[in-house]
Amino acid sequence: MGPxxxxxSWGILGASTFALEQMGPAIHMAxxxxxxxxxxxxxxxxxxxxxxxxxxxxxxxxxxxxxxxEIDVIYIPxxxxxxxxxxxxxxxxxxxxxxxxxxxMHHCDFEDLLETRNTTGLLVSEAFMIVHHPQWQRARQMxxxxxxxxxxxxxxxxxxxxxxxxxxxRNQAEMGGGGLRDIGIYTIGSAxxxxxxxxxxxxxxVRLESGFDVFASIQGTIGDAEYSTYVSTxxxxxxxxxxxxxxxxxxxxxxxxxxxxxxxxxxxxQPSLGLRVEKFPAANHYIIQVEAFNESLLTSxxxxxxxxQARGVQRSIDTILAVATVIH
Length: 328
Fold this sequence. Notes:
The chain has 328 residues and is α/β, with parallel strands linked by helices. It folds into two domains: 8-127, NAD(P)-binding Rossmann-like Domain (Rossmann fold), CATH 3.40.50; 130-283 and 302-327, Dihydrodipicolinate Reductase, domain 2 (2-Layer Sandwich). The protein has nine helices and 15 strands. Strands 14-13-12-11-7-10-9-8-15 form a nine-stranded mixed β-sheet, covered by helices on one side. A hairpin with a 3-residue loop joins strand 13 (265-270) and strand 14 (274-279). Helix 6 crosses helix 7 and helix 7 (179-195) crosses helix 9.
């Protein structure tokens, strides 16, 4: 028998609903991974994690978890405004970090994150799971290989309605609420990932409510392509991204929540070949994200989403909020 393959031990900082429903099970099911502990100030919430991961330990303080010598990686699903602080504290405690998006509230906050990462030599990433999904890796490959010719225009949108949940952190300005920080990262970050260029020449319109954005219409350029998308937390649920080129169209119909919003489906429209559809019904981007993080940790394989890329997207969001015309 060969040497045992190291199992990467993960701890979750906070017993959020998202961690319980998505990332907790993903960490538990990922190959070579152990969900070793969850920290919550209300340890009763951890029982739900132990229902699917019975060996998961319940820890009553965040500090105890990040200082636990048995933990390799800290996953942070806390409210937006706490991501940077706890990512840095975890790294300073010797832990690798995967933090939910946005990992920082402003692009200038990345300086502290980058300095700590570089000083400690630890792995830290924003949990931008869609770049690990095969539909987005395929979209990037297709565009890069010229499947639709020169990309001329990018359009898209992402919306849901949480107006009936005023206590939701996405409806709390002081916690980093609003559509842009929550879902703008997807419409901007996905295009940035495919094109490998930043969003520039930005103009925008936003509708505000209680100090945070509930609708944003964004225009700009990514490389030589025009860019036009919208996000909203006060509209009927929808999501779509479309790359329109000189020789075809690439369309993703469930780009951000595949298997929840709909089946992951990539449509390639080409005049000479008609419509070609690729489907990815079995892919779980949360599990793939965890396994990719582990692989990078163990083999130094580059991450699909770096802090530098995340900083570029956050700079775009900061610019949108700074230059946008407020509409009513």
